[in-house]
Amino acid sequence: MGRKRVFGIGVVAVAMMLGGLSVAPIAVADETATSDVVASEVAVRAENDEFRLDFATPNVDPQAMLPGMMVWMTAHINPIAASEGDWSIYLYPKAGGPWRQLAEVDLDSNGDWNGETGGRVIIPTDLAPGEYVLQLAIPNTGGYTDGNQEITVLEPPTPIMEVHTRLNTTPFVMAGNLIPNGFYTLQWLDADNDVVASEEHVQADNDGLIMRDFAPLAGRTGTYAFAVYREGFDAPAGSVSFTLANGAPLMPSIEGAGDSTGDTSGEGVSTAAQGDEFTITGKGAEPNTTYWLWLHSEPVLLGAVVTDTSGAFNTTVKIPADTTPGNHNIYLTIDKEGYTPVAELDLEVTPAKSGDTSAQPETKPSDQSGDAHTRSEATPSDDEKKALPDTGAGIVVVLGVLVVSAVIGVGFHLARRIVR
């Protein structure tokens, strides 16, 4: 038994060595970890801890950064290195060049900067397009192979400047296609290019938009402009001019050239009959711009117009023949779908004029030589005047008469016998 037991233990040992198995050591009950051991393990982990610099802004593309863009970043440094000095985020050209400090990094006891939310970092507004490195470092210590982010800075896009005047809404001016979260200076300028009002350090939203109403120009009349400047630049990134009347931008207007009748308010209302052509004139719109004309209540696109250099137009449209008689509106819209009207006119649609067949629905030609309205009464021919052919109906009538007569005769005969 002793040999077998020893042989079995040897086989198991050989199998464990060949199979790469290992046996976990069994902890001794009286063995405990000392504070020195714990501190030593923490120090080893800290020395091996990586430097990290990450973007906290959602969906940011490091290869499509823009001058003046603001991003949120997080940083981590191992606690041992964190105590070595004051850390900051620097930027320098990837090909080499001067370093620029962008943000100071205030690390917590775990070596983290701003946890999950991140700290603000602004890409310099005067930065030329090119490849750069964002580096986590201590001043005057040089760069590191970790704790950085490589970025590509692009040329800023050209802003889109528009004045929005809509029916039943407060007019506003919009600067779009700006640097997302970038900072700008806004200026309201008069015809002499003098500053009437301004705002500084205005931040665009995540979509690169800044919108303002015309409150800074309340009560003013004349030609003015709205301009946006990237911070640190003297030339405007974009501007738009407009004409005001008592503090409000002039809106397009349209008029009908048809007949006019008085409505209940005493104002003139254009009229047009079903199927009629109707002339519309407009003014005060954007020069050399396409607009669309829509007939309501049931929306019907009447056509498109293009304004001239003064923002005016003159066009003729046709009122659909199936338009319900009554009060309607014609809208001038800036979109083909008709969702954004900028001017309107009232229109009274009357029934089609008597004798006007343009408003009548089309009828298909009859397959016969004429229809109920065009065919004359047909004159019977000699063949049609011939008697109907015999069908046997006359014989049935004669036999019926004979049967009835016989029944009556029998009745009289019986009556006479009873009387006797």
TrEMBL record:
Asked whether the UniProt record includes Kinase among its keywords, one would answer no
Q: Where is this region: Disordered?
A: 352-387
- Name assigned to this protein: Peptidase
Residue ranges crossing the lipid bilayer per the database entry: 393-415
Basic and acidic residues: which segments have biased composition? 370-387
Key words of the record? Membrane, Signal, Transmembrane, Transmembrane helix
* Polar residues bias locations: 355-369
